[in-house]
Design brief:
This protein is an alpha/beta fold. It has helices at 34-42, 78-92, 113-120, 148-156, 163-169, 196-210, and strands at residues 9-12, 28-29, 32-33, 49-52, 67-68, 98-103, 128-132, 135-144, 173-176, 180-182, 185-187. The longest helix is centred in the middle third of the chain and has 15 residues, at 78-92. The N and C termini lie far apart (41 Å). Bound molecules: guanosine-5'-triphosphate and magnesium ion (MG).
């Protein structure tokens, strides 16, 4: 199946950031917020861009984007954001077959993420998800709009909240991405900032990359 060229993108920023202790989307890394960084990186890869968040969103120097919240207050983890993304896409871009999601807290994700995931999609109900040496990265995925009803029923029916369980249920296609090579060694392109220590590590990799 040739995926329609136009794939919308959504940045998932609806979590609680409890390990960081403050909204991760607003945290600054090398002079830009994590949200602005994610937007800058995803923008060239998608047709339109929006943000899933459950509180106020701050666009610093970045482009102002449409924001939509979870459909209910359950805060059932990343799948709540995915469901909201499917609903948003169905309403705003009825012609799109899939929507791409990335989290707000992984500033180094691949610049060919969406293109490579799209090549793995072989049908209108196929999910494609990213993998690297570090493992599976369940929120870096292309989600079929056709699964909106199925995912809503899965969450409402008390289906497992783990994204992995939902990916297994639908036999998602996995696409493996290589490490980022630098003069100081390699690191995972899906490096994820959950804690203040992770932020320090990200500052170091950014410094190395900009050298
Ligand atoms: N919409 C929505 N997104 C969520 C929810 N929980 C997590 N996410 C998103 O899922 C992705 C992975 O989340 P984590 O980094 O594990 O969680 P977090 O809630 O942001 O941070 P912690 O509270 O420290 O776990 C991020 O993009 C989050 O914004 C939720 O209940 N609703
Ligand atoms: Mg995280």
């Amino acid at each position: 199946m040739a995926l329609a060229a136009a794939i919308p993108g959504v940045i998932l920023a609806g979590g609680l950031s409890s390990r960081m202790g403050q909204d991760k989307a607003r945290i600054r890394l090398g002079g830009a917020s994590l949200l602005d960084r994610a937007a800058r990186r995803l923008r060239p890869q998608v047709s339109t861009l929006a943000v899933n968040a459950n509180g106020p969103v701050l666009f610093g120097e970045g482009e102002e984007l449409p924001v939509f919240a979870d459909l209910d207050a359950a805060r059932a983890g990343p799948l709540s954001g995915v469901l909201a993304a499917l609903d948003h896409t169905r309403r705003t871009q009825p012609e799109a077959s899939h929507v791409a999601t990335v989290p707000t807290d992984s500033p180094f994700f691949p610049e060919d993420l969406v293109a490579r995931l799209a090549r793995a999609v072989d049908g209108p109900e196929r999910i494609a998800v990213a993998r690297s040496e570090a493992g599976l990265h369940p929120v870096f995925a292309l989600w079929p709009v056709a699964l909106a009803g199925d995912l809503a029923a899965w969450l409402a029916g008390g289906g497992a909240l783990r994204v992995r369980s939902y990916l297994e249920r639908h036999q998602a296609r996995e696409v493996t991405f290589p490490p980022v090579e630098t003069a100081r060694g390699s690191f995972d392109p899906f490096f994820n900032i959950n804690t203040p220590a992770d932020l320090d590590a990200a500052e170091n990799w950014l410094w190395v990359l900009e050298r």
